[in-house]
């Protein structure tokens, strides 16, 4: 399970995410929807280590984690599949996910 608690991320004076919380249990599927610029990608990029939150916490299986980079996220078993233009068309969804994992990283497909 991954849980983001009260994630806030700003860019200058622009608040991209304000106290966003989400809990995702293993084996479940979620959709994050909203208008362009609503902060959907930003919160996912915080979870994946592209951005560091200004405040808030991330937990995996109930343990606090400090994700500073995509390398950290991958080591914790977090993968990110980008929008269609960043996928390899000839690969399956699972293969595209594994493609993002570094050697020795965790690539759990449940």
Describe this protein with a few key phrases.
110 residues, alpha+beta, Rossmann fold, four-stranded antiparallel β-sheet, 4 strands, 27% strand
Radius of gyration: 14 Å
Mean pLDDT across residues: 86
CATH class: Alpha Beta
User: What is the β-strand count?
Assistant: 4
CATH architecture: 3-Layer(aba) Sandwich
Secondary structure elements and their pairing?
Elements: E1 2-11, E2 14-24, H1 40-48, E3 55-60, E4 63-65, H2 70-75, H3 93-99
Antiparallel strand pairs: 1-2, 1-3, 3-4
Describe this structure in words.
With 110 residues, the protein is of the alpha+beta class. It has a single domain (2-78), classed as 3-Layer(aba) Sandwich (Rossmann fold). It is 20% helix and 27% strand. It has a four-stranded antiparallel beta sheet with strand order 2-1-3-4, with helices on one face. A hairpin with a 2-residue loop joins strand 1 and strand 2 (14-24). It is globular, with a radius of gyration of 14 Å.
In short:
This protein is an alpha+beta fold and 110 residues long.
């Amino acid at each position: 399970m991954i849980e983001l608690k009260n994630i806030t991320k700003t860019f200058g004076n622009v608040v991209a995410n304000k106290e966003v919380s989400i809990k995702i249990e293993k084996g479940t599927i979620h959709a994050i929807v909203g208008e362009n610029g609503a902060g959907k990608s930003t919160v996912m990029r915080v979870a994946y280590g592209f951005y560091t939150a200004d405040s808030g916490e991330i937990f995996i299986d109930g343990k606090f984690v400090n994700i500073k980079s995509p390398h950290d996220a991958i080591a914790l078993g977090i993968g990110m599949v980008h929008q269609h233009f960043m996928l390899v068309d000839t690969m399956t969804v699972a293969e595209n996910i594994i493609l993002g994992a570094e050697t020795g990283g965790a690539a759990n497909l449940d």
